Amino acid sequence: MKTIFISIFLLCAAVNLRAEDGHQLWLRPHQAAPVTVVMASKNSALLAMAKQELERGWQGAAGATVTLTLKKDNAIKHDGFRLGPTSVRATTEAGLLYGVFELLRRQQTGQPVADKVFNPSYEYRLLNHWDNPDGSVERGYAGHSIFWRKDSSFVVTAKDKALWQEYARANASVGLNGAVINNVNASPRILSADYLGRTKAIADVLRPYGVKTYLAVKFSSPVLLGGLKTADPLDPAVRKWWQAKAKEIYQQIPDFGGFLVKASSEGQPGPQDYGRTHADGANMLAEAVRPYGGLVMWRAFVYSPNDKDRAKQAYNEFVPLDGKFRDNVIVQVKNGPVDFQPREPFSPLFGAMKKTSVMPEFQITQEYLGHAIDLVFLSTMWEECLRSDTYQAGPGSTVARCTDGSVYPQKHTAMAGVANVGLDTNWTGQDFGQANWYAFGRLAWNNQLSSAQIADEWLKQTFAGAADQRATTAAASDWNTNFLVPITQLMLASREAAVNYSMPLGLHHIMSATHDHYGPGPWWAPPKMRADWTPPYYHQASANGVGFDRTTGGSNAVSQYHEPLAAQFNNPATCPDEYLLWFHHLPWDFKMKSGRTLWDELALHYDQGVHQVRQFQQVWDKAQPYVDAERFVAVQNKLRAQSGNAVLWKDACLLYFQQFSHLPIPATVEPPM
Ligand code: GCU
């Protein structure tokens, strides 16, 4: 008897712990009400998932009957759906699954369910995993790869499958429908039989959740793997090699998504090695996957050591190729012209390529934004980019509209995010990193969503006990006032805080190179190092002032923007403060719009960043009654580290720049500790 009690106790404790740890993401188990699911179509693995999700999460009227119908409906695009309080209609099976998740999300977050069509902004919504074949993850801060093993073992265990299933389910719940499962700095080995075997196993697990599998490929694979003498895209033997490889892949994975390619970029081989263009390279691969409906996502992340201004190169190389790409190629463009910095203006390629499918690439993993330590909700950064007006086809030609097919008749539309997922129990290292995965999916589905709504949804679904704490009116109002409102505000302010304490006023790329881009390093410039990899190349600090001159009198990067932006950015009086030192080199005593000098303003921003993080700590401390102990302490510890990091940024940057400004740190700013 005693043993039974102990076992029951241990079981409850285990269940409780499981429910409280961060592994469940925003898909926490709920006490579901009984529901009958009627499927007006033949059964399939995907539909079985949809049914199962409804049964395990239904929060509507007990005993309700919900119908899932596959039916033609002209208002529904791609894998969109039509939702009613007890019905989901779609034209694809994936659409039904997304409809189910939307219905459940609305029930759990208290949003109304009226009759409405939901269509995705982008046809392809993908995560890019920078996972290496040895299981390490480039710019990954949440443990090893969930896909690849260090010991190069190709044995697929039940544990692997369970994990991939949970991963796919999380993706499907926010509408993500593709995963590139290896690093863009691709090893040729990924296309060998062993790795393709494991890729097939992964694809088989992701498929029932509507998630397609893609691979990143190395351009020189025909040489490195195939033993050919060249990888020249116009060489018939090379073309044949890729065609045979595509055939081999599709024989195993009939719905394989296609290839992601980083070529002629950061030392990677590419068509330029053979005097060919990006279009020649991309089109060759596009032809190889075309018979199977595959896609090629060709990255535009290019720059070279000789260029006077790295920010200009992608535009210069790609705009002349507009219209030269096959229609199953999508050019994948990072949000900004340099490299995922805490703040960049949007890449001028958006809207400038009018006859080519162009997709935004965002970085979910926080390479330049505090790794998995700093709490930074990136949704506001992506929202800022998506809402930026390019003016390329008149006012209102936002990055969102220039990439989702609203402005140009793109054949394909897509959005990619560099994943922050690893083997850590909570998937993302920092518990709030999950919010960035969630936000990316939601924005890829609907690029008009506000970050405030996304934060609200995520918090309501993610925090255990939230549902119970909202069970009665009094409890709900307490939970809203003391947890939801302040934590939403914290999240919404967090990205600006990170910009303030690290790279305010348009400063960029001044991070530490020796600590994997964590923390400050504006001084770092070892002899013989490539200038465009060193911070002084970007901040240009001297006795004369600070900032990169990209005006018409400088590198002229400004002219890659459409008017009225080019003129606005070109003039320091009209250039928004947040991009000032991105476009201008200005004297330390330059008069800012606030009336302060540039030096004082800079100091103030750094100081503000530090204060903001300290405030986040206080806000989080007050959230203790509403959060399970495990996550409360974990986030509290991370915020403490972030606070130290913010102080370090401020002190290091102000003391470093002071050598050039020779000005006192203003009194409003706390002295370095
Ligand atoms: C950055 C990052 C690299 C990555 C590259 C890319 O430079 O530091 O790790 O390979 O971006 O996007 O390809």
UniProtKB/TrEMBL annotation:
Residues 114-427 form the Glycosyl hydrolase family 67 catalytic domain. InterPro entries: Glyco_hydro_67_C, Glyco_hydro_67_cat. It comes from the Bacteria. Residues 428-668 form the Glycosyl hydrolase family 67 C-terminal domain. This is Alpha-glucuronidase.
